[in-house]
UniProtKB/TrEMBL annotation:
One of its GO terms (cellular component) is cytosol. This is L-lactate dehydrogenase complex protein LldE. Residues 3-84, 127-221 form the Cysteine-rich domain. Signal peptide: none annotated. One of its GO terms (molecular function) is oxidoreductase activity. InterPro entries: Cys_rich_dom.
């Protein structure tokens, strides 16, 4: 299979190591990966702010870059969900529809398409998983705690394959961190309080690292951790799954 690696703009600009880890991890798992150099923003920030009618250029560019791949894989639940639900084109709607069906978040792709049963990874630390809202409730990467249904966690399934890693139990395992894209700008005080609550939960349960599939949420938590002079670090799940230390 030929996979197109879709890297969100904030990862490209602020956390390039996450893109590199995603590439290396996929190649370790035997996937042929292509990285279209002309890719840019998927349009999610505009759409979330009420300006989806202005995302046409982003949509056309995305189609131009990724239409030729068997799958498109992205280390971000929110950007993946945006493409799945909002990629449209008046000129190339057939291609847009095909892309919507073959775009996957990184963890989702590894568990549901590759169906791996082992990983050559080592990360000897206590790790708490932050279940991002888009990934959990949009992509169904893990079960919602309010449902009376069997629990599951695709990130947890992969992290349990990592040698030396200890997953900690949280009191409120699927609570929002408060980032919410532009919400953290428009409602700063509420956003920060929600982030502090998530960090408190991880701290009291002994986490050394907070991980997840959305670097945007982790960036929000990382900022609060730094202001608190906390020793806890935020790290994308791709970095852990690719780690051999």
């Amino acid at each position: 299979m030929k996979v197109g690696l879709f890297i969100p703009c904030y990862v490209d600009q602020f956390y390039p190591q996450v893109g590199i880890a995603s590439l290396q991890l996929l190649e370790k798992l035997g996937v042929e990966v292509g990285f279209p150099l002309n890719q840019t923003c998927c349009g999610q920030p505009m759409a979330n702010s009420g300006f989806e009618h202005l995302t046409g250029g982003c949509n056309e560019n995305f189609i131009d870059n990724f239409a030729g791949f068997d799958y498109i894989v992205c280390p971000s639940g929110s950007c993946t969900l945006h493409i799945k639900e909002h990629l449209h084109s008046e000129q190339y709607e057939t291609q847009a529809g095909q892309i919507r069906k073959k775009v996957y978040e990184l963890v989702e792709f590894i568990t549901d398409v590759l169906k791996i049963e082992s990983l050559p990874a080592r990360f000897p630390h206590k790790v708490g998983v932050h279940q991002s809202c888009h990934g959990q409730r949009g992509l169904k990467l893990s079960q919602m705690s309010e449902l009376n249904a069997p629990g599951f966690s695709k990130p947890g399934y992969l992290l349990n394959m990592v040698e030396g890693l200890e997953l900690i139990e949280l009191d409120r395992k699927d609570e929002c961190c408060g980032f919410g894209g532009t919400f953290c700008v428009a409602e700063e005080a509420i956003s920060v309080k929600m982030g502090k609550d998530r960090i408190t939960d991880h701290t009291k349960n002994g986490a050394e690292y907070i991980t997840g599939g959305d670097m945007s949420c982790l960036m929000h938590l990382e900022g609060i951790l730094k202001r608190q002079n906390s020793k806890i670090k935020a790290v994308h799940i791709a970095e852990i799954l690719n780690s051999t230390n």
